[in-house]
């Protein structure tokens, strides 16, 4: 569904941000992408919906290549991007306006528009905050409003670019639970994060390092590989997990819970 085929990217000639990146993300997957600061995660995210175009290689959403400018409006409808800062994303003066804003270009019939707004606000549990203004909202609520605005466009893929990193623990949990819920309804989720505990929520993890994907597998496989030691991620937590995984080969629900509790209390 989302295909990176030998993608090469640089901002300035002579520099390499991404070198020959290839992977495919399938419909309905929940994929985490991890990597150190400056490893190119946001660049990757912007390549996913055509905000950036590969210098070499190809990015496709279904059959649509981001290299073809005619495809970009459809691609942007299909791939929604949620960014890091809740404040920078809020462009209107209320939650409702925020959701309506993106829809205005679609020229939908009135009923369709209001049905979409309703459904999107409910999906992120913000239906009681439709009239709220940005300054009345917590970071987590603002991020949920941003997600609602994207959902109203009926995307096929949601990409979260460190969308939890500026939130308090409660806001972070809210966003993670929205991701889980949307995933259970069949949405394809790509969660870019440097919080290793959040990787546990995903079915599959890609590790971005030195401009390429150096790991592609399940979270438990990731914690078993030594590649982790080379990356500047949450070392103490990773080490803790490693220890736990040494006793258990698979992460079952109980272990996940134990790890989460440990994380939140440490
Ligand atoms: N607009 C830009 N112009 C030039 N260099 C950039 C730009 N955006 C990011 N970079 C550089 O590209 C590298 C990867 O950045 P980014 O994709 O934001 O990494 P991450 O999201 O993993 O922290 C960094 O070295 C960063 O300084
Ligand atoms: Mg980034």
TrEMBL record:
Source domain of life: Bacteria
Coarse class of the protein's main subcellular location: membrane
A Pfam family annotated for this UniProt entry: ABC_tran
Keyword Membrane set for record: yes
InterPro entries: AAA+_ATPase, ABC_transporter-like_ATP-bd, ABC_transporter-like_CS, ABC_transpr_CbiO/EcfA_su, ECF_ABC_transporter_ATP-bd, EcfA_1, P-loop_NTPase
Keyword DNA repair attributed: no
Membrane topology: Peripheral membrane protein
GO cellular component assignments: ATP-binding cassette (ABC) transporter complex
PROSITE patterns: ABC_TRANSPORTER_1 (PS00211), ABC_TRANSPORTER_2 (PS50893)
GO molecular function, one term: ATP hydrolysis activity
Keywords: ATP-binding, Cell membrane, Membrane, Nucleotide-binding, Translocase, Transport
Coiled coil: none
Domain ABC transporter: 2-235
Places the protein is found: Cell membrane
PANTHER family noted in UniProt: ENERGY-COUPLING FACTOR TRANSPORTER ATP-BINDING PROTEIN ECFA1, HEAVY METAL TRANSPORTER
NCBIfam families the record matches: ECF_ATPase_1 (TIGR04520)
Family as reported in the entry's similarity comment: Belongs to the ABC transporter superfamily.
Protein name in UniProt: Energy-coupling factor transporter ATPase
